[in-house]
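User: Show me a protein chain along with its predicted structure.
Assistant: Here is one chain, sequence first, then structure tokens.
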Amino acid sequence: MKKVVYGLLMSALFLGACGSNNAATQQNNEESSTSTSDGTTESSLRQEISDLKSENEELNKRVTVLKNLIENSSTDDSASSTSGDVKINQSVDFTSGESITVTEVKADDSISLMAPQDGEHPVVVTALVENKTSSPISFNAHTFDIYDGNNELGRLDANTYSNNIPNEIAGGKKATVVMYFGAKGNAPYSVTYGPATWSE
């Protein structure tokens, strides 16, 4: 009888040990391939986090470039080589990394404005924008303004965007930008970008 009881006790202990060992193994397996309720594994979540970090770093770079552009276009010292009045075809370097040259300003009645206002006529402004940095910089045609001979502000016309206006310029590259403005007065015209003004 003692042998039977002893045998049952040993069997119970043996089965208990196997059961806890199997439970530990199962728990380890579950931890190594943890799944969320939607079936995503831990490794895919880690990859997604890594991808999001990379994307966030790229967005932070763009935000920095945009902040520099905004700050430098609103301060008097944003043109590092020349500021104030400059001549047509004279380049101006900005601390935000771009070099801008207004190469031509002319009234051109062969151009159609998308939404002309009373008394407006089309004026074409051509500018060369060069990115002197190694990173892309944002470009916005609305940063340019034109004034007519009466010092009245002209209006950037939406037909400008039919001219392949870039959203950004790659590092070390340049773009010739053609913009259409509606102006009420005649020449001499002046074009501004930040603190720089190109005059005829």
